[in-house]
Design a protein that fits this description.
Length: about 80
C-alpha cells in the first residue's frame, strides 16, 4: 500500500508574474499533484512550509490542510 504523498511546491512561487498569477499556478499544480496521487491510490498528503510564508499557508488551508506540528529551527536561518 502506498504511503502519503509529499508536496513541496517551492518552485511554483518563483515562476510568478504577480501574487494573483502565482496563486493560480500553485493551485493548479496542487490540483494536478493531488489528482495524480488519488489515481495512484494515495489517500493523504503532508507538506512543509515556512511559518512566515502566509500566502502558501492560506493556499494550503484552502485545500483542507491543517497544522499538524512544527519543526523548531528547521531552516538554516533558524526559522
Amino acid at each position: 500500500m502506498p504511503g502519503p504523498a509529499r508536496a513541496a511546491p517551492r518552485g511554483a512561487a518563483r515562476a510568478r508574474r504577480g501574487r494573483r498569477a502565482s496563486r493560480g499556478v500553485a493551485a493548479r499544480l496542487l490540483d494536478y499533484v493531488f489528482e495524480r496521487s488519488r489515481r495512484s491510490g494515495l489517500d493523504s498528503a503532508s507538506l512543509e512550509v515556512r511559518t512566515s510564508n502566509a500566502a502558501a499557508i492560506a493556499l494550503y488551508q484552502q485545500f483542507g490542510f491543517v497544522t499538524a506540528g512544527r519543526r523548531q529551527a528547521y531552516y538554516p536561518d533558524g526559522e
